[in-house]
Design goal:
It is a single chain. It is built from two helices and four strands. A four-stranded antiparallel beta sheet has the order 1-2-3-4, with no helix packed on it. Strand 3 and strand 4 form a beta hairpin. It is extended, with a radius of gyration of 17 Å.
Length: about 90
């Protein structure tokens, strides 16, 4: 579903843009799995957070899992929840 949603935007060259402002990495003892977390700046969404897992397969690092989350300050969460619930 995501590929279907994202492909037209990337094909037009007008996809979204994220810039990492902080990133940390970890790696398995075997050196075949890595994980990371990052703080991101975005043009349209404001601050965001990302995290993911990479696996080494046939000499290439592949993304096995990635999460993107928008940052909601604690004092704004009640308002956001109301919008998500459809009560605002």
């Amino acid at each position: 579903e995501f590929r279907e949603y994202a492909h037209p935007r990337f094909a037009k060259g007008k996809a979204w843009s994220f810039r990492s402002t902080r990133r940390t990495f970890g790696m398995s003892d075997a050196g075949t799995t890595a994980w990371f977390e990052e703080d991101l700046e975005t043009e349209k969404l404001g601050p965001a957070r990302g995290s993911g897992v990479l696996v080494l397969r046939k000499g290439r690092w592949l993304i096995a899992q990635y999460n993107l989350a928008l940052v909601v300050p604690n004092e704004r969460f009640k308002d956001v929840k109301a919008v998500l619930d459809g009560t605002k």
